[in-house]
Amino acid sequence: MNETLKNRFGGCYIATVTPFNTAGSLDKVQIAAQARWLIESGVAGLCPAGTTGEFLYLSHDEKRYLVEHTVNAAEGKVPVVAGIWALTTAEVSDLARNAEACGADGIFLPPPIYYPADDESIYRWYASIREASELPLFAYNIPQYAANSISIACLDRLFSDGVIAGVKDSTGKTDRVSELVSSFSHRGVVFAASDGFASEGRRLGADGFISAIGNIAPSIFAQLWAGDDSLQPRVDAIRSALKRIGSIPAIKYLLTINGFPFGESRIPCSSLTTEQKSALDELNKAIGVGF
């Protein structure tokens, strides 16, 4: 295993939300402003165009644009690992090539979604993308949304054949992440995810962590991943409050009231009610979310 790769991709990364302007288009100014603030707050890297970034509701060109402008904003100060999911391997391959061309440091990709896919289909999905780009490719296991899980056996084959450089696991399950660390940490990078799992992921030996709540509390997550486990209950309280409202629209609202106007989420994400906004106003004052 290349230790340089593990060192480069360790630490707390942020799965960035996607800002839209009043016309509903991507907001280049806010992409750059938030990226700079996250970096100044001590995060280790940025992951645009993923689940938290509403990737399902971005056009192909918008995904390309979002990655390009995130890379430009990062200015090489931290790695950018770009989400490249699309419906077809041709589209995914194009997004992979675009990420490499604009200077991203890596790419991450969920398995095929919706229709059931066996290990052979999932292997071929990733292998086809490996041919499109030389960037480190991270398999992204999120079965609660993708409806397909990347099995340990499939990951073993992907690592053995040099298809992937690492895995991001969003199950939030101790036994799963423990098995990933024991099986693959010597062969690649293991990222944990699910914000309530940050301390546990570090304890189990994951190389890094990818956070959604870190969009609004980057310094808290940077400190937590550095070893301050006393912050996990604070993270859990924020996570619980956001989930009651709807995480992505709630994160965008908190960013907006703190100087980063991120606009509305796209349908089918719900618009916030007056009562929900009031609850978030109280959360912002009572807990403090890193601004």
Would you give an account of this structure?
This protein has 291 residues and is an alpha/beta fold. It has one domain (3-228): Alpha-Beta Barrel (TIM Barrel), CATH 3.20.20. It is 47% helix and 11% strand. The chain has an 8-stranded parallel sheet with strand order 2-1-8-7-6-5-4-3.
Strand content: 5-15%
Largest sheet: 8 strands, parallel
Alpha-carbon Rg, integer = 18 Å
Give the strand order, joined by hyphens, for the main sheet.
2-1-8-7-6-5-4-3
- Kindly state the mean pLDDT as a whole number? 95
Here the CATH topology equals TIM Barrel
Q: Oligomeric form of this entry?
A: single chain
* CATH architecture classification name: Alpha-Beta Barrel
Order of helices and strands: HEHEHEHEHEHHEHEHEHHHH
Return the structural class. Answer: alpha/beta
What is the CA-CA span between the terminal residues?
Answer: 38 Å
Number of strands: 8
> Helical region count?
13
Measured as a percent range, the helix fraction is 40-55%
Number of domains: 1
Going by CATH, the homologous superfamily would be: Aldolase class I
